[in-house]
Amino acid sequence: MEVSNEPISSLCFNSGNENVIYVSTGKEVKCFDVHMLSENSWKPLESYNYNKEEINQVTCNSKSSFLASADDGGEIKIIDIRQQCVFKTLRNGHTSICSSVQFIPWRPWEVITGGLDTKLITWDFSKGRPSKIVDLGLPDMSSASKAGQCFNPAFVHSIKVPDVDMLDKLGKICVVARGDGVIDVIDMESELASIRPKSSTKSRTGIHSASKCSLPAEGGVADEYGRKWFHLDYSIGGHTAAASCVAFSLFGERGKFLVSGGNDKLVKVWDCSRCLDPGQTGNNELLHLNINLSKKVNWLCTTPAESDNLVVCDTTKVVKVYTVS
Fold first, then answer.
1. Residue 153: inside a domain, yes or no?
2. Residue where one domain finishes, among candidates 96, 111, 135
3. pLDDT tens by residue, 234-285
4. Which of 78, 103, 195, 227 is the most exposed place for a label (fewest CB within 10 A)?
């Protein structure tokens, strides 16, 4: 498909019709039906030109009603697919590039975004404002004090939330791949619950400000506000350079494993069930598998197959396929 003269930064399928794909290129999102394409015709079904800066990620919600596009200016456009127009623009949250965006399946009017300002933000996109801001760059949010941990800033490179059919096993969590090599596993409901009892405070302009998170609890144990947080870092076999991507396993028992890739040329397969219940096991048993590559990892995904179920794209021109069991 000759989609554009500019690089393609992201693509996603329409959740309800996987013949339809959304492709971001430059500041534009194009929609195609792959069954309607021919070798001499690449005409898109729709084209959305709403972002002011280059788009980094595009994603579709589970009901195929909204599309989110996150850009270099730190803005996120929420596009109404059925009405073919901008529903909301999410701004004044990120102060730098917004690198990743995900809809939250169990909260139909919320998205979570991460950026190169080290911020993780939950938004109520029906109102167009942030409901929770976590700054991973604060000194007490970092694991960098631990010996051997990468000292790069805690930029958010990738965010994943589980599919609806994984929630019974995993709970309502969010996983974050960070620039300092740490993978954060966050219980989102306890994070959000920690701000509910507190009344919103008014800023100088009279606008209700989003609550900001402080100290994470170590080892997945709830802190005084009920928050739960777990770091997969160097001290338990984690990445020694920036973590670039993260995905849940679709093979076998869906969501059992968490797969991360990084600039340390490593792919790590974590046992998610042990991460979420660390009291039952030692930290050394969290890492299920380590895969060595020759180059940095750009992206990875899993498939539902019993074999050839992990696909890895690194900085070479060759796509690698592995079997994880």
1. no
2. 135
3. 999 999 999 999 999 999 999 999 999 999 999 999 998 887 775 655 666 8
4. 195
